[in-house]
Design a protein that fits this description.
61 residues, mainly beta, Rubrerythrin, domain 2, globular, binds zinc ion
Length: 61
C-alpha cells in the first residue's frame, strides 16, 4: 500500500483538457464554472475542485 499523502496545493493550475494550455481562473473556483481556453477556445466546465478537474463542454448541433 502506497502512502500518497500530498499536502494541499494552494496553487491550482488547471490546464485545458484539449491542448494543455494553463488556464487562469479568477478567484473563486466553483463546480459548474465555465472556463474558456485562451488558446483553442474550448469551453471547459469545472466538474470537481478537489482534485481540480475540468471537462470540455460538448456542443450540441
Ligand atoms: Zn485549449
Amino acid at each position: 500500500m502506497t502512502t500518497d499523502d500530498s499536502p494541499n496545493n494552494p496553487t491550482l493550475a488547471p490546464v485545458c483538457p484539449e491542448c494543455d494550455t494553463p488556464l487562469k481562473l479568477s478567484t473563486g473556483i466553483n463546480i459548474g464554472k465555465i472556463v474558456e481556453c485562451p488558446s483553442c477556445g474550448v469551453e471547459c466546465e469545472i466538474i470537481s475542485v478537489n482534485p481540480l478537474k475540468l471537462a470540455p463542454l460538448e456542443e450540441e448541433k
